[in-house]
Amino acid sequence: MIFVNPFFKKRKKVYLYDILKILSIKEIKLYKNTLINDIKNLDEALKNNISFLHSAKYKDELISSNSNFIITTKNLSKFVPNQKNKIIVNN
What we know:
The protein is α/β, with parallel strands linked by helices. The strands form two sheets. A four-stranded parallel beta sheet has the order 3-4-5-6, with no helix packed on it. Helix 2 (about 60-65) links the parallel strand 4 and strand 5 (about 70). The model has no long low-confidence stretch (mean pLDDT about 85). It has helices at about 15-20, 60-65; strands spanning about 15, 35, 40, 50-55, 70, 85-90. The chain is built from two helices and six strands. About 15% of the residues lie in helices and about 20% in strands.
């Protein structure tokens, strides 16, 4: 069965730069040409997907996740491995 998300329509090209700009994240020029394919759960994420770490109970899934970009809080950022890109937000 194919799941169709009724909440948003996927755009063809979304750059990490644009996402970080909306979130008011500094140092966004590093990601000017980084294309993001999708937003996925930690266990479903692929290399160019963004994922979220919103609870310490998912830290084991984070280690095995293929996502290179993790949105998290400052408190939880200590669980994100150095080889993944941390995107620290307030909430």
